[in-house]
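User: I'm curious whether this sequence folds into something compact or stays loose and floppy. Could you predict its structure so I can see for myself?
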Amino acid sequence: MWVFLPLVPLFSLLRFVRRCYLHARRQKLPVPVAIIGNISVGGTGKTPVIMALAQELQGAGLKVGIVARGYGGTFDGEFLLVSENTDASLCGDEPALLAQSLGCHVCVGRDRVAASWELVRQGCQVILSDDGLQHYRLARDLEIIVIDQSRGLGNGWCLPIGPLREPPRRLTQVDWVLVNGGSGENGFSLQPRGWRQLASNQAYPFTPWPWGQIEQVCALAGIGNPERFFQSLEAFGLEVRRRPLPDHHRFNPVDFVFADGRPLLITAKDAVKCRMLAPPNTWVLDVDAQLPQPFVREFCTRILALCHPH
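Assistant: Here's the prediction. I'll summarize afterward.
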């Protein structure tokens, strides 16, 4: 890793030049834009946060649009409107999950500005950006950084010798920093909502286990931090046989052979990609982000003020 240390000044210069260039070309939309992103490589729990905030804004009567890059999907055009029926292999797992769960407009594309303008044309009154903190060409009104407590900022170094896309001082320049698994006023947790049988999409309460009294289960996860999912299952009292996979993994039938007939537990993010592949005894753990209420109130208040400035 340290062999790349001489490259750090070059990478810092490139980041600075890129940010200045994109700032000079940034476009302001006629509706509020809030970025929910991170400064580290890998998942931190952004998607549940976006879902919770979108539901709060929908409850306040706003028409919410979500823009995303569509990582893991094959679409590479300017923008694509995602519906509940869009194949996750085309748009990516997170946009498919958001469209299916929220019923709001979701648009993906390599050009987040063009995708955001499409959401404006669809009548959206506020836009939430899934990631895109470093996509500076899209002007934003609010910024939220989400950090995974278990991994933090890694070694504190930027790429190529650390996991950070931007230096730690970026945390002081945003409106809020939320910590997944943290405590205090900025901490939040992912709480189980219940189980869902993948084949039938039938929902079940969290307890008792809908697959019976079997406590020895298998679990796979193709997310940014699979270990957090496995540890949460063990905290429920389950004995878990793990199968971690890369983030945005494209599933194939071989991935499920290891379950060998035992209950197989997966995340909601993975579920949108493997309904036709997974065995019948597959169960999805649906979770909700329990966000700090002072933050939620302040976020909604500021968004509403931007929507209705007078």
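Summary: The mean pLDDT is 92. Helices lie at 8-24, 46-59, 88-91, 93-102, 112-121, 226-235, 268-271, 293-307.
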